[in-house]
Amino acid sequence: MKKLTLLLLSFLLLCAALPAIAGEVPLISKDELKAQLDSGNVVILDVRSGRDWSSSEFKIKGAVQAPGSDIAKWSKDYTKDQPLVLYCA
């Protein structure tokens, strides 16, 4: 569980720094994501919070809101072998 928390926290920090390092962050295409969704094994987490989430017109259907600031709370809901896709568009 600690490894998952550390991994997710690292990802969130990368997400915050994305404008500076955009060329170095691996991305997943919508087709790759769709294939993973079709498998039924992946969870999509929308890590935006506050107005960034509530005022957005763009949300992935089926995504779970899991604000990055609450990682300690929601990370307990997932196992370390469960694929998670986090986005903060």
Automatic annotation (TrEMBL):
The keyword Transferase applies. GO terms for molecular function: transferase activity. Residues 38-89 form the Rhodanese domain. Keywords: Signal, Transferase. Residues 1-22 form the signal peptide. This is Rhodanese-related sulfurtransferase. It comes from Desulfocapsa sulfexigens (strain DSM 10523 / SB164P1).
